[in-house]
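seq/struct pair 1
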Amino acid sequence: MKGLRRVAIGAVLAAITAGAAQAKERYFTYEPDSASAKYRSDVITLTVREDMLGRRVEKLYRTRGKWLTLGKPQGAFSGGQLVKLLKSNDDDTRGIQLYAVDVKDGQGFAYGACKGADRAWLAITPVRPDRDLTIYVLKVDPETKGPALCETLQYRWRAEWQLPKTANEAKSAGHEDDGAPSSPR
């Protein structure tokens, strides 16, 4: 029984390791579809890490403003509090992911979007090709210790981009890199 359990645990660990090694980065670009999105960021590109566990946004590049590094929310407020808040604004809260905006990168963003706040969180609807995107900018309400909605930013799907292959990747794929930039899919 112990031997079988070790084999099963080993197989799971091997699958997780293989999945992590197969993770890939994708780049999704969106155009503003609301006045607040146009003002706060204009066109955005999301760097998305995709692996066997799903997709996570790592960076948000803005045409207007400094780019933002996104991380785990680390217990700012509960998922239940977030769903309760967003249900009053949007009936479909399935798949929304919460991210903490890096304190250093997002200091000006938080201050502007949340009227003087020193921290901001982003609740982002599922990132999928050919789907529009909504980003809820949040802060912690000092009275309730729960989330407070600062702004809702709406975006239209524009394109998915790929980085040009390196010379080594091109050779291993069986063709040489012609130096031309990649184009959207």
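seq/struct pair 2
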Amino acid sequence: MSRPLFKIREHGKYGFIDATGEVVIEPQYVAVEDFYNGFARVQLNDRLVHLDHLGRPLLRHTFNYIGLFEEHLARARVVRMWGYMDPRGRLAIPVQFYDAGDFSEGVAAVNIDGLYGYIDQWGNEVIEPNFDWAGEFSEGLAPVRIREQEGYINRSGDMVILPRFDDAQPFQGNVAVVVQDEKWGLIDKEGKLLIKPQFDLIEGYTNGEFFDGMAVASRDGKYGFINNEGEIVVPPSYDFAGDFGEGLALVEKDGLFGYVDKSGKLAIPLRFEDAGVFSGELAQVRKNGRWGFMDRDGRVVIAPRFEEVMPFRNGLAWCIEDDKWEYIDQWGDVVWREEGLGSRE
């Protein structure tokens, strides 16, 4: 497994360091994304290209757009048609589809002559294109659309949950989010409603995505939580709620932030100006307009001195201090700091 890398900025250019703060890929790109499944997308000559952990760009072919690598293949577009590239930058599946999804459970949804079906990793058709839209397989099932309604098929292409939903999402374990009349709920693998659609769809929110087996649920402007058994653990009662991380989730009421555990009990009192998700046993917390980090007991262990912060990832947290990027470790020590002139993005 490749060592984790972290994006950095110097003099308006971007590169990457390792967890010790050593520069691995010199800042030279005008835009970069985080590494994902072994590659990072960077902007090169007004186009996205994949970069490996050694800083080598995949340049065998020129694409108008490239997706992320999933199961060792990334969808790639030339003009209006799609194919797939492999980790060496070679065109593994020729450009021939009107649309293409990411690979999941060994197959990907593609559009052939206006209808969606599925191909395997060699480009062979494994489920005939019979659908108006098709999503990713998860837990052996995939959401598909026929006319204006969505249901689920199995790996043989058989419809096992009849289309009756306005929208259907891939399964998360034994449950899936479905939408009817602009409200979402949960079904099981037999298509039985565990929670009838009743929660609000909020743009930019997770809308039923589970973290630590819990999902935020909003109704009438209030927030609570459901578990992946289809139970409402915390009825919507908070003014805001964040996703669970390491057994705790951020909640807010009357302008103060704290944390609840999976039973719905308030584990850290509502007393902060703002806060974030737990990761690496620490969470972002804001006091007097500055950000620091606290532990699971609610003790501030890294003093608030930052203008902006992100959660810890692979032992480091990205921060901005005095308009400069830096990375700190879990003791608050600076591992790397931007030397060039900082500029807020």
